Amino acid sequence: MLYQISRGSKAFGTETVFEDIQFEIRGTEKIAVVGRNGCGKSTLLKIMTGELELDKGEIHSTSGTRIGYLAQTTFPDETLTVREDLEKVFEPLQKLKAQLDKLTERMATDYSEAVLDRYAQLETQFEMAGGYTWQSELMTVFTKFGFQEEMLDRMINTFSGGQKTRLAFVKLLLSKPDILLLDEPTNHLDLETIEWLEGYLKRYSRAVVLVSHDRMFLDHIAEEVYELEYGSMKHYTGNYTSFQNQKQQDLIRQQQMYNRQQKEIERLEGLIERFRYKATKAAMAQSKIKALERMEKIDAPQKSDTKSFSAHFVPRLKGGKTVLEIKELKVGYDRPLCEISLEILSGQRIAVLGPNGCGKSTLMKTLVGDLPALGGDYLYGHQIETGYFDQQLAQFSSGKTVLEELWDDYPELDRTQIRTVLGRFLFTSDDVFKTVDVLSGGEKVRLSLAKLMLRQANFLLLDEPTNHLDIVGKEALEEALNGYTGTILFVSHDRYFIKKIATAILHIDMQGKAVYYPFGYDQFDEDQQEKEKEQAPKKDAEIQRQTPKRNPNAREAAKLEKQIAEKEEQLEELRQKRFDPEYYHDYQKMNELDEQIDDLHNEIEHLMQRWEECLEG
C-alpha cells in the first residue's frame, strides 16, 4: 500500500467536513475525487501534503513516498533563469552522469569485474531514469504549456503571476512525484494543452489524485473515483461516467431493499398486533417481536446533493435575423491578434475556440465596446440587445450586500421580486445580506448569472461562464442555455460544455487566422483529428500518395523518420560496446566511444528538429 487514510475525520470548528473516511492508493492508479463545492476535496489534498492534519484517524504511507502538489511547487530564487531552475529537478541524473564519467576514467586502468558491473548497473539506472531523454522532455513539457523555447533563458521574476503558475505546473510534472496531486488542473489551460495533459497523465507511471469539474477530463483519465458527499466517502471502480451509472444503480438497489424491508416490517407488526392479546397466539407474537429486534435495519437511500440554481434566460425582444455582422475585424491591444469576418444569425450558438493568447477574450471585449477595434468593423442587427458575462468581471469586489448588488442594477423591481430571483440562484435567508467580498468564486458567478438573466437579452456573449462552477452547476447552466431561444457567442475550455451547447465553432489559431465551422464540437473534433493524421509522418506507402498541396513536406518527413530510426539503432550498438573488454580496458577507446555516442545524440536531435519543422509545414 503506497498511501492510506483509515477512519479519517476532519472538522473546522463545529462544521464537519468528513467523518470516518477510508482512502487508499495502492500503486500507480489514476484516482478522481469528486463532490460538490465545499464537500472537502481540497481539504483532503491538503491533508495528504501535510498542510492540514486529521482530527481523528490514521495515515500510513510507504517510506520515502514523494507527494507533489502545485500549490507547494515554488521558485526559491526568482533571479535564476527558467532553465537553471528546471534543470535542478534533474540534479540526481546529473550526479549519476558524473559517477558514470568517473567510472569511465577508472576503467582505463581498473579492469575488474566489480567496476564493470558497477558501470553496467549505473548506466542501466541512468537510462531507465531518463538520462538520455530528460532535456527533450523538459523542452516538450515547457512548450506544451504555451511557452516559447527562448523563454527558458528569461529570469523567473520577469514572468506574470499566471505564467509562474504554469511554470510551477511544468516543474511539478518534470519532478515526477510518486503521488501527483492535481486540484483543478485544467483551469486557465487551453484545449490543446488540456488534451496533451490528458495523454501525459494516462501514460504517467506513478499515482495521480485528481480533483476536477471537467467531466471529459475525468472520463479520459480516472480509473477509480472517490466521492465525498454528506461528510462520507464512497469508492467506485471506473471513470466518471461509470461512477455516475454505478451510483444510480446503487441508489435504485438500496431503495428496492429498503422498500422490501419496510413491507416485511409492516407485515410483522401486523401479525404482532393481531396475535398479541390472544393467549394461544402469544408465543407467535413474541417470536415476531424478536425477529423485528434482530432485523438489521436498512436506511432509506440518501438522495444525491443535486441542489443547484435555476436560471431561465428569456429574451425581451425577438430581434432581427442577422444578429451581428463582422467585417475584417482586427482585435488586440497594441497590435492585432486576429482578423475575423463572420455573420451571426438568430438562434446560433457559436463556441470561440483556440489557444491561450489568440484573442478570444479580446474579441468578446471588442464586441461589447470595452476595447476599440484596431481595424475593420462590426454591426449589430435590428433590435439586438446584448448580455455579457466576463470571467474576470464575474469575480468582482464590492462592499455591497448580495441584495443591494442585484437591486442597484434593477431598481425597478421590488424587494420580493429581487429576493425571488436570488432564491433561484441559491441565495436564501441571510445569504442575501452577505457582502459580495466574502462570496466564493462560484457564488460570484451565480450572482453574475442572476444579473444576466434579468437583462433579458436576445444575444448572450459569455466568456468562460463555467469557471468556478461545480459539475451540478455546469449542468444547470447547460439546461438553461439549451432552453434559451436567443443567440449565443461563447468562449469555453470545457469540452463537455462546448459539446452540449455549440451548434457551430469559430476557431482562431496563434497566427490570427479565424475559421468558421458550421457544425458542433464532435464533428469539429473529428475534423481536427483527421487534419492531424494527414500532417503526421506515416511509415507506409500512403504518405507517398499525398499530394504536395495537402502536405508538401510529407515525403521529406518520412525520409527523416527513417534516418532517425537508423541512427537510434547505431546508438544502441555503440552503447553495447561499452561492455566490450576491448573498450572498457582502454581509456582512450572508451573516450572516443563516448564522443561518438554524444555526436550521435546531437545528430538525432538535429534530425528530430528538422522532422518537426517538416510537419509544421
UniProtKB/TrEMBL annotation:
PANTHER family for the chain: ABC TRANSPORTER ATP-BINDING SUBUNIT, DRUG RESISTANCE ABC TRANSPORTER,ATP-BINDING PROTEIN
Keywords, comma-separated and alphabetical: ATP-binding, Coiled coil, Nucleotide-binding, Repeat
- Lineage, please? Bacteria, Bacillati, Bacillota, Erysipelotrichia, Erysipelotrichales
The superkingdom of the source organism is Bacteria
Q: Which parts form a coiled-coil structure per UniProt?
A: 251-278
Q: Any idea where the ABC transporter domain is?
A: 3-255, 321-544
GO MF terms held by the record = ATP binding; ATP hydrolysis activity; DNA binding
Q: Which InterPro entries match?
A: AAA+_ATPase, ABC_tran_C, ABC_tran_Xtn, ABC_transporter-like_ATP-bd, ABC_transporter-like_CS, ABCF_ATPase, P-loop_NTPase
User: For bias kind Basic and acidic residues, which ranges apply?
Assistant: 530-543, 556-567
* Segments of this protein annotated with the region Disordered: 527-567
Q: What protein name is recorded for this chain?
A: ABC-F type ribosomal protection protein
